[in-house]
Amino acid sequence: MVSGFKGAWGVTPDISSAFAQRRARLSERRRETRYPTQDAAEVEVRHGEILRMPAMVVDVSRSGLRLELPAAVGRGEQVKINLPRQVVILGEVRYCRRSGMVFYAGVLILDVFQDQIAPGEHVSADELSFFLISKGLAVADIIRLREHLIECEPCRIRLGETDAKLNPTRRQKT
Q: Structure pTM?
């Protein structure tokens, strides 16, 4: 390395990369874990008349989801998101940004209508594992599972046990 070399803005590369990492941490304002998905959906926007458009659910969290859309939707608009397997999500658009040829909209979930796990039934071990590794479940499954975990203590315990198996802590040598 050349002595006295300075990167962009006259800052040495070590310092500029440290600032970039700090900026990335500060820009991450999410309070909830996002679960990545690629589920097709249909979105209805009520703006005078009903506008329907295809969408892709990109990720979902406990209180919201992110949609990929072919057209912009206004902030504050009320939307109805129809998913396969009889799931309907009512929400409010929090933001909508263009990215290339598509738009990404963040939606605050206001209400969910779907079939629930029957009383006395529990979540399967596979579903718990997929949920923990954030892969392999559809949006409808994620929402149904989260709702069930709120009400079912035995499944919450099994979730903790499964997490301990999938993510064992390493003991340090003393």
A: 0.66
